Amino acid sequence: MDQTNTYHYTVKPDATGEDWQITQQTNSNGDTLNIQLNNGDQAVLIYTLASESQGEWKFTENGTLFTEAQDNFNYNLTSNVSADKNAVTVIIEAVSLDHTLSADDIKRLMTEPQAMSFTLEPLGEATIDFRLVVEQKTDSNNSLEPVKRYFSQDPKVVIGGTQPR
């Protein structure tokens, strides 16, 4: 049976360039969220704007910018902004966390255009680097105004496989 683990966060954006306050509400285990998944399992990360931030900020576009998704053929990543724009949900679904490409193989895939094949190696853990994306609310309808987005620091998510059940 596939399992879903849910993690809740409260987010306070900052317009000054300082790190945002991203506070884990449940399953707290420090600055980095280490998730252990079996194939088919999901982790659901829900980032909600702090109540005092909801009048000034809103999540925009799909709410995230994935800057690096190491081993991204091992899992599916989706993100969705709520209708009220006060929350973004990131879903990580494990597809196959048993084997992966080496760092050298990934570099070759990124730089060489021809088709190729590789022997996979055991997967230890994978880091998913991303940023939350917000904009400040405005009453302006001026389409000539510059469009500005604010990006959080990386929330630090590491996933790894567990032993077969």
Word description of this protein:
The protein is mainly beta and 165 residues long. The chain has a domain at 4-98 and 125-138: Cupredoxins -  blue copper proteins (Immunoglobulin-like). The chain is 5% helix and 47% strand. It has one helix and twelve strands. The strands form three sheets. Strands 2-1-4-7-6 form a five-stranded mixed β-sheet, with no helix packed on it. Strands 3, 5, 10, 11 and 12 form a five-stranded mixed β-sheet that branches. β1 and β2 form a beta hairpin. The radius of gyration is 18 Å and the shape is globular. 22% of the residues are buried. The model has no long low-confidence stretch (mean pLDDT 85).
Question: Helices and strands in order, then pairings?
Answer:
Elements: E1 4-12, E2 21-24, E3 33-37, E4 42-49, E5 57-69, E6 75-81, E7 87-94, E8 99-100, H1 103-111, E9 121-122, E10 125-136, E11 150-151, E12 157-161
Parallel strand pairs: 1-4, 3-12
Antiparallel strand pairs: 1-2, 4-7, 5-10, 6-7, 8-9, 10-11, 10-12
User: Pairing-aware structural class of the strands and helices?
Assistant: mainly beta
Please give the radius of gyration in angstroms: 18 Å
Report the total helices: 1
CATH topology of the domain at 4-98 and 125-138, by name, is Immunoglobulin-like
The average pLDDT score comes to 85
Assigned CATH class of the domain at 4-98 and 125-138: Mainly Beta
- Name of the CATH superfamily of the domain at 4-98 and 125-138: Cupredoxins -  blue copper proteins
CATH architecture of the domain at 4-98 and 125-138: Sandwich
